[in-house]
Every structure is written in structure tokens, then in C-alpha cells.
Amino acid sequence: MNKKTFIIFIFIVLSIYSIVNYYIFIHGLHALPDNDIVKIIYIVVFSFLFAAYILSRFLQKYSFDKISEILTWVGSFWIGAMFYFFLIIVLLDILNLINNFFEVIPIDKFLAHSIYDQLIGAASFLFVALLMIFGFLKARKPILKRIRINISKKVKGIKEINIVAVSDIHIGLLVKHQMVNRLVKIIKKQKPDIVLFVGDIIDEDLKPVIKFNLGEPLKTINAPLGVYAVTGNHEFIGGKISSVKYLESLGIKVLQDEVIKIADAFYLAGRFDKDIGLFTKNKRKELAELLKETNPEYPIILLDHQPFKISKAIENGVDLQISGHTHNGQIWPLNYLTKAIFDLSTGYKQIDNTHFYVSTGFGTWGPPIRIGNKPEVVNIKFAFRN
């Protein structure tokens, strides 16, 4: 992404962020009782919430002390709360507009308008606060998904491969040693033959990851057939060269648009993330070019972070494609958006002879919450016809 494009992108994002916050701020101000002290406190607190995430991004360029970490947590939670406050206020404005024309609910006959606004404001605040707590607790409790996939290819001496696949860990200031240790414990318990990390292992802020060695627990993972990864868009945002170097220091082999043959039994192909062109001057190989040297008699497993154009995997004889990226929206109702964008937003699907699995991911990006889906680790028993 060139400098001009980046500046335009940041300007658009900050403009939308500011407009949404102003919309929430004005409605919240109108819902307050007519008390100057209460309004001053509200303005100060809201200004802090608005600025927290922006300040955290600025401070992280220079230091990673407790202040920048607290601002990151506060700002990230506010993004989630802001999203739901915005949805609630839009819905209430629509209902009020309808009520003004048709007076479906004669509110003024039962309550003074100011009292009604205060009650609605208090109820909205309580609802969003409880939602943030619920979403945070849910995001910290990953589940293990187990699936069995059978393909009609022979592999000499091997009946099945026990795969553990993980996507979107987003190791950083919000996903630190405690969560990474939890992940490692789940992986080891499955006694996998091979471990596959499907992109966005690291969040876009690489400096705190390296400074505090937040990925260190991953170094303890052992699998007979190896531990492999591909780059996601966040590895490119943080700097692909540094991200790959750090991951490989943990004993993870990062496949960079390449194919390897494992145990003379199957191929493992790993693609660069599709957004490589936004952050570098390079392009990734077409899938046909990537797989041109493979023998179709052997099983082919493809790691591709974003599940775009999954028909290409079918056309090129891939047996299993594992992806992530979508988080299945992470917070409801964004799952409907990811379903509209991707051919497969989450879970398992077989099309012809190709099997697909798109993981909801292990960590979170932005708000440290999950609503409407669960974080996961995937255990795939990949069985062959013998």
C-alpha cells in the first residue's frame, strides 16, 4: 500500500469513526438528566473512550508500558461497545420516526419525554455493558472442533493423518502468554501428527510480540511430521520479513508460496495471503502454477488464509483446503456480512472431491469479544483409502 493510498485509507477510517462517535455522543448527551456536573463527567469519559484506541496506536510506536496496554484494552472494548450502541441508536431512531407519524406507542401519555430518554439510555448502557462482559468471557474459552475427512487416494503405510489446525491467533497485547499457553495445551492434548497455522498468527503490531516474546509457548509444540504456517494479511501489515523470521525462530516452518512433500506421503502447499499486493510490490503465484510439479496421485493439502475463489482449489485437484480470516464475523450480526462475501464463511464443506474447512479462529481482532460464534482449534482426522 503506497503512502498516498494509506493516508486516504486512514482519513476515511478516522472520519467514519468520528461520525459514529459523534452520533452516539449527541444521543447520550440528550439522555442525561439536566445536571451540569453529570454532563461534564459524561463529556470527559466519552472523550477518553473516543481517544483511547487512537492514542494507544500512537504510543505503541514508541513504548509498550502499562499506559499503552491499558489504552489498548479500553479502546478495543470501546470499539465493540460503540458498534452496539450505534446499532441500538439507529434502531431507536427508526422506531421513533415511525412513532412520530403513526403514534403506535403513545409514550407521552405515560412518561415525560426526558424520563423516557433517561430510561432508554440507562437500559442501553446496561445491555451493552453486559454484552461486553459476555463476549469477553466467550472469547477466552476456545472449543475443540473434531471432524473426519475421507479421501479416495492411497497412501502407502499411512491410514490417516491427525491434523491440528489453528487460524487467527492474533498474538499481541490482547492475546498474550496466558491465551497462547491455553492454545498450546489444547494442541498437545490431541497428540497431532502435524500442526498447521493458517495465517494471522501475529497481530499487526509486531514490536510488543518480539519485545515480550509473546509467542514463546509455541516453541514447545512437537509433531512428528512438523509444524507449518502460512502468512495472513496481518503478517504483511506488521512486516512479512520480520514476522516470518520471528515465527521460524519458534520452530515453525512458514510456507511462502511453496509446496513440500511430507514423508513421501502427501503434499502440503502454502500460499501467500491474497492481500500481498497491498503491502508489497509482489504478487502471489496462481494456484495452477504453485501446484504444477505435484503428482495428482498423492493427497494435496492447501493452506490459504482467506477463503476467496475456493473453486480454484477444485479445479486444481486439491483434496483439503484449510482457511481462516473470516472469524465468522466475530460479533453478531457481522456473520451475515462474511457469509455474503465468502463462498464459505465458516465450518466444513465438500464440493466434488475437494474438502474445505474455514475456521472461526482462535483469537480476536479489534474488540476482544466474540458474540454469535466461538473461538476454536480444529482437529482433523484426514483418512486415506487403503
Globally, the shape reads: elongated
CATH superfamily of the largest domain: Metallo-dependent phosphatases
The DSSP helix count reads: 12
Shape-level CATH architecture of the largest domain: 4-Layer Sandwich
Q: Tell me, what is the CATH class of the largest domain?
A: Alpha Beta
- Tally the beta strands: 12
Radius of gyration: 24 Å
Number of domains: 2
The succession of helices and strands, N to C, reads: HHHHEEHEHEHHEEEHHEHEHEEE
Q: Termini distance?
A: 49 Å
Report helical residue fraction: 40-55%
Low-confidence stretches: none
How confident is the prediction overall: mean pLDDT?
91
* Class of secondary structure makeup: alpha/beta
What portion of residues belong to β-strands?
15-25%
Remind me, CATH topology of the largest domain?
Answer: Purple Acid Phosphatase, chain A, domain 2
Spatially, the strands of the biggest sheet line up as: 1-12-2-3-4-5
Largest pleated sheet = 6 strands, mixed
Give a verbal description of the structure.
- This protein has 12 helices and 12 strands.
- By secondary structure, it is α/β, with parallel strands linked by helices.
- The strands form 2 sheets. The chain has a 6-stranded mixed beta sheet with strand order 1-12-2-3-4-5. A 6-stranded mixed beta sheet has the order 6-7-8-9-11-10, with no helix packed on it.
